[in-house]
Amino acid sequence: MWAVTNPYHSEECYMESTKTGDSDSGHNGDLYISQAESEVDRDSPTLETVSGFSTSSSPLPPEPFEPHFWVKFTGEVTKNGDVVKYTIKTWRRNDERTEFVVERQYEDIEWLEHCLITSNPIPGLIIPPLPPKPAITSEMAEIKSKKQLGSDTRTLIGDEFDKDCRHLEHYLKLLVSHHVFGKDEALEKFLTEKEPPPRAKVKKGIFSWLSDSIESRKGSHKDCEEYFQKERDWANQYSAYMKEASQAFNGIIYAQQRLSGVLGHLATTLTLSTGSNDEVNKLTHRLCTKFSECLEEVKNGLEEISYSDDSTLGDYFELYTRYLEAEKAEEAKLLAEKSFEECTDIARQEMKYFHRQRAAIFQDRLVRFTEEQVRCRKDLCMVLTKYLTNVKEFQAPCSEE
Predict the structure, then answer these.
(1) Cα angle: 258, vertex 261, 267; to 5 degrees
(2) Which one of 100, 143, 263, 304 is CB 3.0 to 4.6 Å from 299, fit for a cystine?
(3) How many CA atoms lie within 13 A of 318 on its CB side?
């Protein structure tokens, strides 16, 4: 008998800090939702019919899976050449006093995904998507900088370890809250053993590529069961909308970053002293310095807005753009005749869970996005009001006739 997770016991069961590493504890202050509230939300007709079709024909889900671990990236990152190591803290759910602290590379997490998938070949599972490899080389940083700041930029975006930690932490939380992967011994060893597991390079063979090609061709054929056909149609349409929204939202973030860079250059230029030391030039320099300070504060405010945008709705768009691809891939596999009868019930429950989880995470990100927008705008308004008052009170010397 298989188990299905409740969406409110997913990675969103415990709300992480706005910025990675703000707290020494991975679970102190975390927000948990009671099982009674979860059961009520699970029966909500809005969430059950979120993809536009009835799901009442599926069997009732078993008891929700309780994660065995709490996981937290500390924000401590060490980089030696092309080798980047992230520090991860883990606590057992039934023993919070025992803390495990390990260092892992991205390649270790990539190998963990490979081990979990190969050791749990259960048809119908929607596998949490692994984040793309962070840009750690100068060549990767240059490509990312030109994409975000424009092809003619001379500015290189540095390492974004905070963002990388946030994405990888979300991924591990999805794994530990998964009803199958969360009980796997490989995941437990990954989180608790000091030394990383020995790994080999993951390669796709010719048979894997051939299988992917066949599955992609199957996706164009109509499914023999209406439930999955409607789900596939919804996923194809929603995936396109999600990609479009993600690109547009990232465009806003990149524009904020470009504007922030321009304001920084302008603020620096205004502080450069030119001309003689007469009174007029001194007065001009003082006035330009005040404007420079104001621009620097506005620049910092834009950077804060850009960060909050990226860590709220940006994270959601990035995660579920990849997650929808994982769901569509799993739907294609359902057409395999040998495993169809075995996996239909599992697939139904996985898709229900997927929609409840997606709706819950979107609601959380949207609320946090709105709160951060209000906070950042208030802070920026206070800064502008302060410097406007300073400019109004600026006393210019009276000219002598």
Answers:
(1) 140
(2) 263
(3) 19
Q: Which two tokens stand for residue 46?
A: 């809005």
Q: Tell whether the torsion through CA atoms of 138, 140, 143 and 148 is positive or negative.
A: negative
pLDDT tens digits, one per residue of 302-326 = 989 998 999 899 999 988 888 887 7
Structure token pair of residue 27: 């679970």
**First vs last Cα of the chain: how many Å apart?**
97
pLDDT of residue 207: 40
Rounded to the nearest 5 percent, the helix, strand and coil shares of the chain are 60, 10, 35
Q: Are 173 and 319 in contact (CB under 8 A)?
A: no
CA dihedral 210, 214, 215, 217 (to 10 degrees): 140
Count Cβ atoms within 10 A of the Cβ of residue 279 and give its class: 0-12 exposed, 13-18 middle, 19 or more buried. exposed
Extract the tokens encoding 275: 């001309």
pLDDT, tens digit (0-9, with 9 covering 90-100), for 18-67: 333 444 444 433 433 333 344 434 443 343 444 444 444 444 455 678 88
pLDDT at 367 over 50: yes
